[in-house]
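Morning F.,

Quick status update on the modeling queue. The single chain you submitted on Monday has been processed. Sequence for confirmation:
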Amino acid sequence: MSLLLLAALLAATPSADTAVGTWRSPTKNAIIDVEKCGASLCGHLVSSDGIKADPGLKDVNNKDPKLQSRPLKGSLMLSGFRRDGNDWVDGSVYNGNDGRTYGGKITIIDANSIKLRGCVFVPLCKTETWTRVR
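Structure tokens below.
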């Protein structure tokens, strides 16, 4: 009986691959599609309150003037995350609201929630809990 319980617990334990999917950020109801990009993770912006209001919304806050005319929809928001156990670490998080890129870490909470931490440098960080859309 205890082996059956152990097998059920292990099957319910989320793995680092749980991060792959479509997620909702509480910031402006952003929807981000997270996928494997080689050995790392990356994520593209699918939608947000701003994109719903203006589908042609541009990346006007980007610090690189050449990128300020690109659409925010489809922009790379997460990149370079490497797997470390059940976490994804050492990644980059682009924030379209301020046009800056931050160091990031993704922690798996369960099959339907992850925590994304973005840092200027530790301890100057902000953490959000994202929920799975699908």
